[in-house]
Design brief:
216 residues, single chain, two-stranded parallel ribbon, 3% strand, mainly alpha, 51% helix
Length: 216
């Protein structure tokens, strides 16, 4: 499946997805730009050979801690929880094709499954209680998760400049697509990235194959 890093680059290069989460059909122009950008990053040594062997973003964090890489893309939750273990490290937005700030957001949601009006009302009260700005800010701060409300993030304070950085990241965040239509496109995206970084195909060839194999 395509990583958040690939999806953010695809957005930066002019790609998009519908509100329902589908990225089908793939944009050949955006995909070619994405692949060319990643190929150049790989050629310059910003994407190490072992990048394709990593299963998720946390693997990159482990490489950073062990000194095997000098830069990596990580989840905010991972950085918040482990930044005290870093020395002489800094944070920055992920470089993108056009320089725009683009990031992929993941969040939890509430689902009320009961059809009983009384239980529905009780569930709504619990959700309202949990999402109270002060309570939400306290819980997320303690758990190293980002708040889903601006008012809650504001309560984290301004003493730490990283919190200002996080605010900007959240304002630019896009939801990660999902669903059956996305799954096939996601595999095609990741295969295209692998082919380009291993030299099996040019950005143009890989983009053409991916867009031809994924039909709306």
């Amino acid at each position: 499946m395509a990583s958040d890093a690939v999806l953010s680059q695809y957005l930066s290069a002019g790609g998009s997805w519908e509100k329902e989460g589908s990225i089908v059909p793939l944009s050949p122009q955006a995909l070619e730009r994405t692949l060319a950008f990643l190929k150049e990053a790989h050629a310059r040594g910003f994407i190490p050979p072992q990048a394709l062997e990593q299963g998720d973003a946390d693997a990159g964090w482990a490489l950073l801690l062990s000194g095997q890489v000098a830069i990596t893309q990580v989840r905010a939750q991972r950085y918040l929880a482990g930044r005290d273990n870093l020395r002489n490290a800094a944070y920055a937005p992920v470089p993108t094709w056009d320089g725009r700030l683009v990031t992929i957001g993941r969040c939890w949601g509430f689902a009320v499954v009961t059809e009983d009006p009384v239980r529905q009302a009780a569930a709504a009260q619990v959700i309202t209680w949990l999402l109270d700005a002060t309570r939400h800010a306290t819980w997320t701060f303690a758990a190293d998760y980002l708040p889903t409300r601006r008012s809650a993030l504001a309560l984290w304070g301004q003493a730490d400049p990283y919190f200002t950085f996080l605010r900007d990241q959240l304002e630019a965040a896009r939801h990660r697509p999902a669903g059956a239509a996305y799954d096939g496109a996601s595999r095609a995206l990741q295969r295209a990235v692998t082919d380009v970084l291993t030299g099996a195909a040019s950005p143009q060839e890989a983009a053409r194959r991916a867009t031809e194999n994924v039909q709306p």
